[in-house]
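>> Question from a student workshop board

For tomorrow's exercise we were told to take the sequence and the ligand below, predict the bound structure, and bring the output to class. My setup keeps failing. Could a helper post the expected result so I can at least see what it should look like? The ligand is magnesium ion.
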Amino acid sequence: MRVVRFRKGSETPRLGIAEPDGPATVLELEQLDVPAVLRGERGVTGRTIEALDVETLELPPPYELLAPLVPPETWAAGVTYERSRDARVDESRVEARDVYSLVYDADRPELFLKDAAGRRTVGPGGTVGVRSDASWTVPEPELALVLDENGALLGATIGNDVTARDVEGANPLYLPQAKLFAAACALGPAIVIPEGWSQPFEIELRLLSSEGETIYEAKTSTASMHRSFEELASWVVRENPVPAGSVLLTGTGVVPPDEVALAPGQQVEIRIPGIGKLVNPVGAAADLLPAERSKTHVG
Ligand code: DO4
Ligand code: MG
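>> Workshop helper replied:
Here is what the output should look like for this input. Compare the format with yours to find the bug.
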């Protein structure tokens, strides 16, 4: 089952459910609280909406699909795939390369706060940002876990951990600036409640030019992760009060080649079968600050 969040005009956002593999009918729920729905409270109103596409779950006007939740906190794990470790060592411009190899092998994972209250997060169709003081920004397609207050896994959605690699590569202490800026995170289109957590998720990334041509595409699988979802989640909540409905991005296994960089006008598509396809145009972060943006906020 997939859980979506949507709005009709300027009304309060509502929740709905759709099957994982079609048909694209969204059944509206009575409950407005995402963690409650993920825990099983699913009274239906009887109203339905036909989505325009079974993967993006785009809704017809006057409905607007929103990010499936506004996480009170969004955490992210890093260097959870060998590919990510190798890329960080390569991008590093200072003698701090060992930190990535050390954290890959250590018991304690790399965890960082990516966002709070959805301030830097956009939903499906929202524009993701590229900061003007960075020259090498990349998408990081990641499985995003929705956690309860004890770190239990409630569901999973698609996340994009947009990253300024040159900023991070200049000095690892710049990580918060490489990771947190306007519209640096995208979530959606739906939260899946899987039957269990042992099946891996396949993750596909496609980057399109402003002319609609494919610039880069790649695939990975959470089967290649070096750590389990439960292990990462348990480290997030360890002696740390994390509110229910917080999100954990589980790291990237896709690293585009050095010549690929996000630029305004491009489009990022991330597909995870069973969850859907998250599509976001790329824009300048400076134009996506809260006062500037319209559609981009999680809502
Ligand atoms: O070490 C920096 C962050 C790495 C990251 O975000 C990832 O591996 O996904
Ligand atoms: Mg990442």
